[in-house]
# Entry
Amino acid sequence: MTVKPTLHTCLSPALLHLYDVSSSIVIIIDVFRATSTIAAALYNGAKSVIPVDSVPKAIEIAKNIDGIAAGERDGKVADGLQYGNSPLVYSKDFIDGKTLVLTTTNGTRLLQMALDKNAQTIIAGSFPNISAVCDFLINEKKNVVLGCAGWKDRFNLEDTLFAGAVIHRIKKYFQIHCDSSVMADALYTKHQKNLLAFAPQLTHYHRLVERFGLIDDIKFCLDNDVANVLPVYEDGKLIVRNT
Amino acid sequence: MTVKPTLHTCLSPALLHLYDVSSSIVIIIDVFRATSTIAAALYNGAKSVIPVDSVPKAIEIAKNIDGIAAGERDGKVADGLQYGNSPLVYSKDFIDGKTLVLTTTNGTRLLQMALDKNAQTIIAGSFPNISAVCDFLINEKKNVVLGCAGWKDRFNLEDTLFAGAVIHRIKKYFQIHCDSSVMADALYTKHQKNLLAFAPQLTHYHRLVERFGLIDDIKFCLDNDVANVLPVYEDGKLIVRNT
# Structure
Protein backbone atom coordinates (compact mmCIF):
# COMPACT_ATOMS: atom_id res chain seq x y z
CA MET A 1 0.00 0.00 0.00
CA THR A 2 1.33 3.40 -0.92
CA VAL A 3 1.74 5.76 2.01
CA LYS A 4 -0.22 8.93 1.42
CA PRO A 5 1.55 12.26 1.74
CA THR A 6 0.75 14.42 4.77
CA LEU A 7 -1.30 17.61 4.87
CA HIS A 8 -1.11 20.26 7.58
CA THR A 9 -2.74 23.65 8.01
CA CYS A 10 -0.66 26.44 9.53
CA LEU A 11 -3.09 29.03 10.96
CA SER A 12 -0.64 31.93 11.31
CA PRO A 13 2.83 32.87 10.05
CA ALA A 14 3.86 32.84 13.74
CA LEU A 15 3.30 29.06 13.76
CA LEU A 16 5.18 28.24 10.54
CA HIS A 17 8.23 27.00 12.48
CA LEU A 18 6.12 24.06 13.71
CA TYR A 19 5.83 22.54 10.24
CA ASP A 20 8.33 20.75 8.03
CA VAL A 21 8.23 23.24 5.21
CA SER A 22 11.43 22.07 3.52
CA SER A 23 9.88 18.78 2.42
CA SER A 24 6.50 20.26 1.48
CA ILE A 25 4.60 22.21 -1.10
CA VAL A 26 3.56 25.40 0.70
CA ILE A 27 0.36 27.13 -0.39
CA ILE A 28 0.40 30.82 0.48
CA ILE A 29 -3.17 31.83 1.34
CA ASP A 30 -4.13 35.48 1.65
CA VAL A 31 -7.74 35.48 0.49
CA PHE A 32 -8.38 39.20 1.19
CA ARG A 33 -6.68 39.99 -1.09
CA ALA A 34 -3.06 39.28 -2.08
CA THR A 35 -3.37 35.77 -3.45
CA SER A 36 -6.70 36.54 -5.14
CA THR A 37 -5.04 39.53 -6.81
CA ILE A 38 -2.05 37.44 -7.89
CA ALA A 39 -4.41 34.91 -9.50
CA ALA A 40 -6.42 37.69 -11.20
CA ALA A 41 -3.35 39.44 -12.61
CA LEU A 42 -1.81 36.23 -13.96
CA TYR A 43 -5.13 35.02 -15.33
CA ASN A 44 -5.49 38.29 -17.19
CA GLY A 45 -2.12 37.92 -18.84
CA ALA A 46 0.46 39.45 -16.50
CA LYS A 47 3.90 38.07 -17.41
CA SER A 48 4.65 37.61 -13.73
CA VAL A 49 4.01 38.97 -10.24
CA ILE A 50 7.07 39.93 -8.21
CA PRO A 51 6.24 39.96 -4.48
CA VAL A 52 8.40 42.38 -2.47
CA ASP A 53 8.41 43.39 1.17
CA SER A 54 8.51 47.19 0.95
CA VAL A 55 7.07 50.09 -1.01
CA PRO A 56 10.48 51.60 -1.97
CA LYS A 57 11.58 48.21 -3.28
CA ALA A 58 8.37 47.86 -5.31
CA ILE A 59 8.91 51.29 -6.86
CA GLU A 60 12.58 50.64 -7.65
CA ILE A 61 12.05 47.22 -9.23
CA ALA A 62 9.03 48.38 -11.23
CA LYS A 63 11.08 51.30 -12.58
CA ASN A 64 13.95 49.06 -13.68
CA ILE A 65 11.79 46.56 -15.53
CA ASP A 66 9.03 48.93 -16.68
CA GLY A 67 6.54 47.09 -14.47
CA ILE A 68 3.63 48.24 -12.36
CA ALA A 69 4.31 48.91 -8.69
CA ALA A 70 1.35 48.20 -6.46
CA GLY A 71 0.52 47.33 -2.92
CA GLU A 72 -1.42 47.92 0.22
CA ARG A 73 -0.87 48.65 3.85
CA ASP A 74 -3.70 48.18 6.35
CA GLY A 75 -6.25 47.61 3.60
CA LYS A 76 -5.50 50.80 1.61
CA VAL A 77 -3.31 51.63 -1.38
CA ALA A 78 0.13 52.04 0.17
CA ASP A 79 1.48 55.60 0.41
CA GLY A 80 3.61 56.40 -2.62
CA LEU A 81 1.88 53.90 -4.90
CA GLN A 82 -0.79 54.42 -7.49
CA TYR A 83 -2.32 50.95 -7.49
CA GLY A 84 -3.45 48.81 -4.58
CA ASN A 85 -4.35 45.25 -3.85
CA SER A 86 -7.77 45.03 -5.48
CA PRO A 87 -8.05 42.09 -7.87
CA LEU A 88 -10.61 44.05 -9.90
CA VAL A 89 -8.00 46.60 -10.95
CA TYR A 90 -5.99 44.00 -12.83
CA SER A 91 -8.20 43.51 -15.88
CA LYS A 92 -6.84 42.18 -19.15
CA ASP A 93 -6.83 45.68 -20.66
CA PHE A 94 -4.61 46.92 -17.91
CA ILE A 95 -2.24 44.08 -17.02
CA ASP A 96 -1.84 41.88 -20.12
CA GLY A 97 1.82 41.41 -20.94
CA LYS A 98 3.02 43.50 -18.00
CA THR A 99 4.84 42.65 -14.78
CA LEU A 100 3.19 43.45 -11.44
CA VAL A 101 5.48 44.28 -8.51
CA LEU A 102 3.32 43.75 -5.44
CA THR A 103 3.81 44.47 -1.76
CA THR A 104 1.12 43.52 0.80
CA THR A 105 0.74 43.35 4.57
CA ASN A 106 0.55 39.64 5.19
CA GLY A 107 0.83 37.48 2.07
CA THR A 108 4.20 38.79 0.90
CA ARG A 109 5.66 38.30 4.36
CA LEU A 110 4.50 34.68 4.65
CA LEU A 111 5.91 33.92 1.20
CA GLN A 112 9.28 35.32 2.28
CA MET A 113 9.18 33.21 5.46
CA ALA A 114 8.44 30.04 3.45
CA LEU A 115 11.37 30.88 1.15
CA ASP A 116 13.68 31.43 4.13
CA LYS A 117 12.69 27.98 5.40
CA ASN A 118 13.51 26.41 2.04
CA ALA A 119 10.03 25.36 1.07
CA GLN A 120 10.22 22.74 -1.65
CA THR A 121 7.64 24.49 -3.83
CA ILE A 122 5.60 27.64 -3.19
CA ILE A 123 2.28 28.33 -4.85
CA ALA A 124 -0.38 31.00 -4.28
CA GLY A 125 -3.92 29.87 -3.50
CA SER A 126 -7.30 31.57 -3.32
CA PHE A 127 -10.91 30.81 -4.19
CA PRO A 128 -10.46 32.34 -7.68
CA ASN A 129 -7.93 29.60 -8.49
CA ILE A 130 -9.00 26.79 -6.16
CA SER A 131 -9.37 24.09 -8.82
CA ALA A 132 -5.91 24.72 -10.25
CA VAL A 133 -4.45 24.49 -6.73
CA CYS A 134 -6.30 21.28 -5.86
CA ASP A 135 -5.47 19.57 -9.16
CA PHE A 136 -1.81 20.41 -8.66
CA LEU A 137 -1.73 19.07 -5.09
CA ILE A 138 -3.45 15.84 -6.08
CA ASN A 139 -1.10 15.27 -9.01
CA GLU A 140 2.14 16.08 -7.20
CA LYS A 141 1.57 13.53 -4.41
CA LYS A 142 3.86 15.44 -2.03
CA ASN A 143 3.46 16.67 1.54
CA VAL A 144 1.44 19.87 1.78
CA VAL A 145 1.39 22.81 4.19
CA LEU A 146 -1.58 25.14 3.75
CA GLY A 147 -0.17 28.43 5.01
CA CYS A 148 -2.70 31.02 6.16
CA ALA A 149 -1.27 34.54 6.01
CA GLY A 150 -3.69 35.80 8.67
CA TRP A 151 -3.68 39.43 9.78
CA LYS A 152 -0.46 40.57 11.44
CA ASP A 153 0.05 37.06 12.80
CA ARG A 154 -3.52 36.71 14.05
CA PHE A 155 -5.74 33.86 12.94
CA ASN A 156 -8.30 34.88 10.36
CA LEU A 157 -11.44 33.21 9.15
CA GLU A 158 -11.16 33.76 5.39
CA ASP A 159 -7.78 32.10 4.98
CA THR A 160 -8.94 29.23 7.19
CA LEU A 161 -12.10 28.86 5.09
CA PHE A 162 -9.98 28.53 1.96
CA ALA A 163 -7.74 25.96 3.63
CA GLY A 164 -10.93 24.11 4.59
CA ALA A 165 -12.24 24.28 1.02
CA VAL A 166 -9.02 22.72 -0.28
CA ILE A 167 -9.09 20.01 2.42
CA HIS A 168 -12.74 19.30 1.66
CA ARG A 169 -11.81 18.55 -1.96
CA ILE A 170 -8.52 16.66 -1.58
CA LYS A 171 -8.54 15.01 1.85
CA LYS A 172 -8.89 11.47 0.58
CA TYR A 173 -5.48 11.72 -1.09
CA PHE A 174 -3.66 12.73 2.12
CA GLN A 175 -2.93 11.60 5.67
CA ILE A 176 -4.33 14.30 7.94
CA HIS A 177 -3.36 14.16 11.62
CA CYS A 178 -3.78 17.84 12.26
CA ASP A 179 -6.41 19.53 14.41
CA SER A 180 -6.14 22.78 12.44
CA SER A 181 -7.09 20.92 9.27
CA VAL A 182 -10.05 19.17 10.92
CA MET A 183 -11.27 22.55 12.20
CA ALA A 184 -10.79 24.27 8.81
CA ASP A 185 -12.67 21.49 7.02
CA ALA A 186 -15.53 21.67 9.56
CA LEU A 187 -15.75 25.47 9.29
CA TYR A 188 -15.82 25.38 5.50
CA THR A 189 -18.36 22.55 5.41
CA LYS A 190 -20.67 24.54 7.68
CA HIS A 191 -20.55 27.65 5.48
CA GLN A 192 -19.81 26.35 1.99
CA LYS A 193 -23.32 26.94 0.67
CA ASN A 194 -23.08 30.64 1.31
CA LEU A 195 -19.69 32.07 2.14
CA LEU A 196 -20.90 35.58 1.38
CA ALA A 197 -23.61 35.35 4.04
CA PHE A 198 -20.96 34.36 6.61
CA ALA A 199 -18.57 37.14 5.53
CA PRO A 200 -20.00 39.90 7.78
CA GLN A 201 -18.72 37.90 10.78
CA LEU A 202 -15.12 38.32 9.57
CA THR A 203 -13.07 41.13 11.14
CA HIS A 204 -11.46 41.72 7.75
CA TYR A 205 -14.90 42.21 6.18
CA HIS A 206 -15.43 45.21 8.44
CA ARG A 207 -12.06 46.62 7.51
CA LEU A 208 -12.64 46.25 3.76
CA VAL A 209 -16.37 46.84 3.40
CA GLU A 210 -17.34 49.23 6.17
CA ARG A 211 -14.21 51.35 5.98
CA PHE A 212 -13.43 51.16 2.28
CA GLY A 213 -16.64 49.98 0.57
CA LEU A 214 -14.92 47.06 -1.15
CA ILE A 215 -17.85 44.64 -1.31
CA ASP A 216 -17.12 43.78 -4.97
CA ASP A 217 -13.60 42.77 -3.97
CA ILE A 218 -15.04 40.47 -1.30
CA LYS A 219 -17.40 38.87 -3.83
CA PHE A 220 -14.58 38.25 -6.30
CA CYS A 221 -12.30 36.85 -3.59
CA LEU A 222 -14.93 34.32 -2.44
CA ASP A 223 -15.81 33.13 -5.96
CA ASN A 224 -14.47 29.79 -7.19
CA ASP A 225 -12.34 29.53 -10.31
CA VAL A 226 -12.87 33.02 -11.72
CA ALA A 227 -9.10 33.28 -12.31
CA ASN A 228 -8.17 29.63 -12.48
CA VAL A 229 -4.41 29.61 -13.01
CA LEU A 230 -1.62 28.08 -10.92
CA PRO A 231 0.85 30.72 -9.66
CA VAL A 232 4.19 29.08 -8.84
CA TYR A 233 7.13 30.93 -7.30
CA GLU A 234 10.31 30.59 -9.37
CA ASP A 235 13.44 32.74 -9.35
CA GLY A 236 11.90 35.62 -7.45
CA LYS A 237 8.57 35.76 -9.18
CA LEU A 238 5.20 34.11 -9.44
CA ILE A 239 4.46 32.79 -12.91
CA VAL A 240 1.73 30.61 -14.34
CA ARG A 241 2.55 26.94 -14.51
CA ASN A 242 0.54 25.18 -17.14
CA THR A 243 -0.87 22.00 -15.69
CA MET B 1 -24.07 53.38 27.48
CA THR B 2 -21.47 51.32 29.26
CA VAL B 3 -18.71 50.03 27.01
CA LYS B 4 -18.49 46.27 27.21
CA PRO B 5 -15.14 44.69 28.00
CA THR B 6 -13.33 42.87 25.19
CA LEU B 7 -12.89 39.13 24.74
CA HIS B 8 -10.21 37.46 22.65
CA THR B 9 -9.23 33.84 22.09
CA CYS B 10 -5.55 33.01 21.81
CA LEU B 11 -5.24 29.72 19.93
CA SER B 12 -1.66 28.86 20.88
CA PRO B 13 0.93 29.98 23.45
CA ALA B 14 3.03 31.07 20.44
CA LEU B 15 0.41 33.77 19.72
CA LEU B 16 0.10 35.12 23.28
CA HIS B 17 2.29 38.15 22.47
CA LEU B 18 -0.49 39.43 20.17
CA TYR B 19 -2.87 40.05 23.07
CA ASP B 20 -2.95 42.66 25.80
CA VAL B 21 -2.60 40.26 28.68
CA SER B 22 -1.61 42.86 31.27
CA SER B 23 -5.06 44.45 31.29
CA SER B 24 -6.98 41.17 31.10
CA ILE B 25 -8.15 38.17 33.01
CA VAL B 26 -6.38 35.23 31.37
CA ILE B 27 -8.07 31.83 31.40
CA ILE B 28 -5.57 29.00 31.09
CA ILE B 29 -7.23 26.21 29.10
CA ASP B 30 -5.68 22.75 28.93
CA VAL B 31 -8.71 20.50 28.66
CA PHE B 32 -6.72 17.23 28.25
CA ARG B 33 -5.86 17.32 31.10
CA ALA B 34 -4.05 19.88 33.26
CA THR B 35 -6.84 22.34 33.96
CA SER B 36 -9.42 19.56 34.38
CA THR B 37 -7.08 17.93 36.90
CA ILE B 38 -6.55 21.22 38.73
CA ALA B 39 -10.34 21.67 39.02
CA ALA B 40 -10.78 18.06 40.21
CA ALA B 41 -8.06 18.28 42.87
CA LEU B 42 -9.34 21.58 44.27
CA TYR B 43 -12.95 20.43 44.14
CA ASN B 44 -11.97 17.36 46.14
CA GLY B 45 -10.38 19.43 48.87
CA ALA B 46 -6.77 20.01 47.85
CA LYS B 47 -5.43 23.02 49.78
CA SER B 48 -3.79 24.29 46.63
CA VAL B 49 -2.17 23.26 43.36
CA ILE B 50 1.35 24.54 42.73
CA PRO B 51 2.16 24.49 39.00
CA VAL B 52 5.86 24.07 38.26
CA ASP B 53 7.83 23.71 35.05
CA SER B 54 10.04 20.70 35.78
CA VAL B 55 9.97 17.30 37.43
CA PRO B 56 12.94 17.96 39.78
CA LYS B 57 11.28 21.18 40.96
CA ALA B 58 8.00 19.33 41.58
CA ILE B 59 9.83 16.69 43.65
CA GLU B 60 11.80 19.28 45.64
CA ILE B 61 8.83 21.50 46.45
CA ALA B 62 6.58 18.56 47.34
CA LYS B 63 9.28 17.25 49.71
CA ASN B 64 9.62 20.59 51.49
CA ILE B 65 5.91 21.08 52.08
CA ASP B 66 4.88 17.44 52.41
CA GLY B 67 2.83 17.71 49.24
CA ILE B 68 2.20 15.35 46.35
CA ALA B 69 4.45 15.67 43.32
CA ALA B 70 2.72 14.79 40.07
CA GLY B 71 2.93 15.43 36.40
CA GLU B 72 3.04 14.20 32.85
CA ARG B 73 5.23 14.38 29.81
CA ASP B 74 3.82 13.41 26.41
CA GLY B 75 0.64 12.03 27.95
CA LYS B 76 2.31 9.67 30.46
CA VAL B 77 3.27 9.92 34.13
CA ALA B 78 6.57 11.80 34.03
CA ASP B 79 9.69 9.77 34.75
CA GLY B 80 10.58 10.01 38.43
CA LEU B 81 7.03 10.72 39.57
CA GLN B 82 4.43 8.40 41.03
CA TYR B 83 1.31 10.29 40.02
CA GLY B 84 0.32 11.71 36.66
CA ASN B 85 -2.13 14.13 35.19
CA SER B 86 -5.34 12.10 35.37
CA PRO B 87 -8.17 13.99 37.11
CA LEU B 88 -9.60 10.65 38.28
CA VAL B 89 -6.61 10.02 40.55
CA TYR B 90 -7.38 13.04 42.69
CA SER B 91 -10.40 11.76 44.60
CA LYS B 92 -11.41 13.21 47.96
CA ASP B 93 -9.92 10.22 49.81
CA PHE B 94 -6.57 10.88 48.25
CA ILE B 95 -6.21 14.66 47.94
CA ASP B 96 -8.35 16.26 50.65
CA GLY B 97 -6.28 18.69 52.72
CA LYS B 98 -3.11 18.10 50.70
CA THR B 99 -1.10 20.25 48.30
CA LEU B 100 -0.59 19.05 44.74
CA VAL B 101 2.63 20.08 42.98
CA LEU B 102 1.92 19.63 39.29
CA THR B 103 4.05 19.80 36.16
CA THR B 104 2.52 19.29 32.70
CA THR B 105 3.54 19.65 29.06
CA ASN B 106 1.45 22.60 27.95
CA GLY B 107 -0.77 24.12 30.65
CA THR B 108 1.99 24.91 33.13
CA ARG B 109 4.04 26.57 30.42
CA LEU B 110 1.20 28.84 29.27
CA LEU B 111 0.49 29.84 32.87
CA GLN B 112 4.13 30.84 33.31
CA MET B 113 4.01 32.86 30.06
CA ALA B 114 0.88 34.71 31.24
CA LEU B 115 2.63 35.47 34.54
CA ASP B 116 5.72 36.76 32.73
CA LYS B 117 3.47 39.10 30.75
CA ASN B 118 1.89 40.42 33.95
CA ALA B 119 -1.61 39.09 33.42
CA GLN B 120 -4.00 40.97 35.67
CA THR B 121 -5.66 37.77 36.94
CA ILE B 122 -5.03 34.14 35.99
CA ILE B 123 -7.65 31.43 36.37
CA ALA B 124 -7.78 27.80 35.21
CA GLY B 125 -10.70 26.74 33.04
CA SER B 126 -12.08 23.41 31.84
CA PHE B 127 -15.45 21.79 31.20
CA PRO B 128 -15.53 20.39 34.78
CA ASN B 129 -15.61 23.97 36.12
CA ILE B 130 -17.16 25.90 33.21
CA SER B 131 -19.99 27.51 35.19
CA ALA B 132 -17.66 28.85 37.86
CA VAL B 133 -15.44 30.33 35.14
CA CYS B 134 -18.33 31.92 33.23
CA ASP B 135 -19.95 33.37 36.35
CA PHE B 136 -16.64 34.92 37.37
CA LEU B 137 -16.04 36.47 33.94
CA ILE B 138 -19.56 37.93 33.80
CA ASN B 139 -19.27 39.40 37.30
CA GLU B 140 -15.78 40.87 36.93
CA LYS B 141 -16.65 42.92 33.81
CA LYS B 142 -13.02 43.04 32.72
CA ASN B 143 -11.25 42.26 29.45
CA VAL B 144 -10.75 38.55 28.89
CA VAL B 145 -8.17 36.46 27.02
CA LEU B 146 -9.10 32.80 26.63
CA GLY B 147 -5.69 31.15 26.40
CA CYS B 148 -5.57 27.73 24.75
CA ALA B 149 -2.54 25.74 25.86
CA GLY B 150 -2.58 23.64 22.68
CA TRP B 151 -0.04 20.89 22.11
CA LYS B 152 3.57 22.06 21.92
CA ASP B 153 2.39 25.35 20.42
CA ARG B 154 0.10 23.69 17.90
CA PHE B 155 -3.59 24.53 17.74
CA ASN B 156 -5.80 21.89 19.30
CA LEU B 157 -9.50 21.23 19.03
CA GLU B 158 -10.36 20.47 22.66
CA ASP B 159 -9.06 23.74 24.10
CA THR B 160 -10.75 25.63 21.26
CA LEU B 161 -14.02 23.82 21.97
CA PHE B 162 -13.85 24.93 25.59
CA ALA B 163 -13.12 28.52 24.56
CA GLY B 164 -16.14 28.25 22.26
CA ALA B 165 -18.31 26.89 25.08
CA VAL B 166 -17.39 29.87 27.27
CA ILE B 167 -18.02 32.33 24.43
CA HIS B 168 -21.33 30.66 23.68
CA ARG B 169 -22.45 31.36 27.26
CA ILE B 170 -21.07 34.84 27.89
CA LYS B 171 -20.78 36.59 24.51
CA LYS B 172 -23.57 39.06 25.11
CA TYR B 173 -21.57 40.64 27.93
CA PHE B 174 -18.49 41.30 25.79
CA GLN B 175 -17.31 43.08 22.65
CA ILE B 176 -15.89 40.39 20.39
CA HIS B 177 -13.92 41.52 17.34
CA CYS B 178 -11.82 38.41 17.07
CA ASP B 179 -11.93 35.80 14.32
CA SER B 180 -10.55 33.10 16.65
CA SER B 181 -13.51 33.63 18.98
CA VAL B 182 -16.05 33.50 16.14
CA MET B 183 -14.49 30.25 14.95
CA ALA B 184 -14.39 28.72 18.46
CA ASP B 185 -18.03 29.62 19.05
CA ALA B 186 -19.05 28.11 15.68
CA LEU B 187 -17.08 24.93 16.33
CA TYR B 188 -18.59 24.48 19.78
CA THR B 189 -22.12 25.24 18.57
CA LYS B 190 -21.77 22.58 15.90
CA HIS B 191 -20.66 19.88 18.35
CA GLN B 192 -22.19 20.92 21.68
CA LYS B 193 -24.86 18.23 21.68
CA ASN B 194 -22.29 15.46 21.64
CA LEU B 195 -18.70 16.43 22.31
CA LEU B 196 -17.81 12.82 23.01
CA ALA B 197 -18.91 11.75 19.53
CA PHE B 198 -16.62 14.41 18.02
CA ALA B 199 -13.68 13.45 20.24
CA PRO B 200 -12.25 10.68 17.99
CA GLN B 201 -11.39 13.41 15.45
CA LEU B 202 -8.99 15.03 17.94
CA THR B 203 -5.30 14.20 17.61
CA HIS B 204 -5.04 14.22 21.40
CA TYR B 205 -7.80 11.62 21.64
CA HIS B 206 -5.60 9.18 19.75
CA ARG B 207 -2.69 9.91 22.05
CA LEU B 208 -4.73 9.41 25.22
CA VAL B 209 -7.20 6.70 24.25
CA GLU B 210 -5.49 4.55 21.65
CA ARG B 211 -2.04 4.68 23.25
CA PHE B 212 -2.97 4.83 26.93
CA GLY B 213 -6.60 3.67 27.18
CA LEU B 214 -7.71 6.79 29.00
CA ILE B 215 -11.30 7.01 27.77
CA ASP B 216 -12.62 7.68 31.28
CA ASP B 217 -10.32 10.67 31.54
CA ILE B 218 -11.71 12.00 28.27
CA LYS B 219 -15.28 11.58 29.51
CA PHE B 220 -14.53 13.43 32.75
CA CYS B 221 -12.70 16.21 30.92
CA LEU B 222 -15.65 16.84 28.57
CA ASP B 223 -18.29 16.84 31.32
CA ASN B 224 -19.74 20.15 32.52
CA ASP B 225 -19.50 21.22 36.16
CA VAL B 226 -18.36 17.94 37.71
CA ALA B 227 -15.72 19.87 39.67
CA ASN B 228 -17.23 23.31 39.70
CA VAL B 229 -14.74 25.48 41.57
CA LEU B 230 -12.86 28.59 40.50
CA PRO B 231 -9.05 28.08 40.60
CA VAL B 232 -7.31 31.45 40.85
CA TYR B 233 -3.53 31.89 40.77
CA GLU B 234 -2.21 33.77 43.79
CA ASP B 235 1.31 33.87 45.21
CA GLY B 236 2.61 30.91 43.27
CA LYS B 237 -0.35 28.61 43.65
CA LEU B 238 -3.84 27.94 42.43
CA ILE B 239 -6.45 28.13 45.17
CA VAL B 240 -10.22 28.10 45.21
CA ARG B 241 -11.84 31.50 45.19
CA ASN B 242 -15.29 31.39 46.65
CA THR B 243 -17.66 33.28 44.38
Observations:
- Chain A has a mean pLDDT of 95.
